[in-house]
Amino acid sequence: MAKLWIGVDIGKTHHHVAAVDGDGRLVYSRRVANDETSLLTVMAEVSTYGRPVCWAVDVTTGLSALLLTLLWRRQVQVRYVSGTVAFHMAAAFAGENKTDARDAVVIAQTIRMRPDIPVLEPSDRLLAELTVLTSYRADLVGQRVATLFRLQELLTGISPALERAVDLNRKAPMMVLACWQTPAAIRHAGVDRITALLRRGHVKNAVQVAEAMVAAARQQTVNLPGQRAAAVVVGQMATEILALEQRIAAVDDLIADQLDQHPLAPIIESLPGMGPLLTAELLVHTAGMTEYDSPAKLAAHAGLAPVSHDSGTVCGNHRQPRRYHRRLRHILWMAAFTAARECPTSRAYYEKKRAEGKNHRQAILALARRRVDVLWALIRDRKAFARPAPTVRAAA
């Protein structure tokens, strides 16, 4: 019996469902509301055709969560057609119209013609919660970075010396700026009051920070244009950044609690450079390391493996891939970068690649690729990474 291929163009309030048969003929097309009753109605209507079905979606985030859950409960196979794949596949069909109905047909035709489209598997509870927490943390960090850049600009307009004197990425200067923003206000507060404030916030180098900020404030006695309004905004932004840091720390604690329950977390975290956050993101973006059947495929998905670019008599020509999972590559890059500084084994491999003529970026990428093999072996054997024992020189 011929199979039925169903493509779904995902939307916020409504989806469009289209089905094609084995010959590519459109046999079903409908716009459906994103609620349980409507989706179950569509599934029942499709089942009346009496054929095996394969569904495909173009979004895997919360917009499609209800549909995916209902399909998985029915043990229906679901594939993921990325937006890039759907965009390029659309050029293979007649017409240039861009509608939800046409997009759904393109998705259905794609899974009919391409058996290599990946199959989506139900996420377990831990991975689903880690996905939410890591995404939320990324949003909070983005807000903090944007607010910090704006605060630095405004503080420079109040006192350039004050902006240079302290590291605004630290908690202590933010605590001071939340209370006093102008050079005159900081001079009036004095070292003792600022030190007392910082000590209540459990800042270790309270005296040094207070003295640095007061010394910077004494370098400027004039008021700059717009200083009064800028001071109000700086105070509010500093308070907002402190609140964001508390929320980020709370999310980090929740992520750590979830990682304690995942069986692979201790193994991944044992690899030098893989902290709790990178471990959580790696598990999220690799579906718990279940999407790959070899380390080579994981490396290729992360853009760590070169791709062949041969033509005619030109052979052995390789170039950097252009289509890869950029966040996954960033995770493996950051872990390798940290390990190259802290782990003697990783540092030795990095130095080896530098000696071969590779630049810093190429050497880190090579190290990241090597670490993929190591990580894969650790997970396969269910063993934690064993750091080499430090060598002890014999006495002369």
Automatic annotation (TrEMBL):
Q: Name one GO molecular function term.
A: transposase activity
InterPro entries the UniProt entry points to? Transp_IS110-like_N, Transpos_IS110, Transposase_20
Q: Which domain of life is it from?
A: Bacteria
Residue intervals of the Transposase IS110-like N-terminal domain: 6-160
One GO BP annotation of this record: DNA transposition
Where does the Transposase IS116/IS110/IS902 C-terminal domain lie?
267-351
Q: Name one Pfam family in it.
A: Transposase_20
PANTHER family from the xrefs? PUTATIVE TRANSPOSASE FOR IS117-RELATED, TRANSPOSASE FOR INSERTION SEQUENCE ELEMENT IS1111A
According to UniProt, the name of this protein is: Transposase
Organism encoding this protein: Micromonospora halophytica
